[in-house]
């Protein structure tokens, strides 16, 4: 079984991203959260879902009264990720594929409870 962190790193490389995976890991270690297990890897941080893209792209930027977990990168079991987030926020947000790395794209925001129910149903 390939460790989830290597799958996440491969996704960066395969997307031809101008971002550096290890620099993003370091920034999330300093300013967000990194979860790393053989079956799950994730970088996430609390943000405001109504924030401008330029602030979402700036990993060190702090947000007052965050309402959303921005999952910057993840590989592995979604249900495990949801169970390990440090605290609950009403929303989860994702950028699809490499869109985050190629200019402003709308954030895909979902109610946390909806994602949790879907992950439990699909067991992913």
Largest sheet: 5 strands, mixed
Number of domains: 1
Oligomeric form of this entry? single chain
Instruction: Determine the fraction of residues in helical runs and give it as a percent range.
Output: 25-40%
Strand content: 15-25%
What is the succession of H and E elements? HHEEHEHEEH
Count of helical segments?
Answer: 5
Instruction: Measure the end-to-end span.
Output: 16 Å
Total beta strand runs: 5
Low-confidence stretches: none
Strand order of the largest sheet: 1-2-3-4-5
Radius of gyration: 14 Å
Mean of residue pLDDT? 89
Structural class: alpha+beta
Tell me, briefly, the overall form: globular
Describe the structure.
The chain is of the alpha+beta class and 124 residues long. It has one domain. 35% of the residues lie in helices and 24% in strands. The chain has 5 helices and 5 strands. The chain has a 5-stranded mixed beta sheet with strand order 1-2-3-4-5, with helices on both faces. The longest helix has 11 residues. It starts with a helix and ends with a helix. The model has no long low-confidence stretch (mean pLDDT 89).
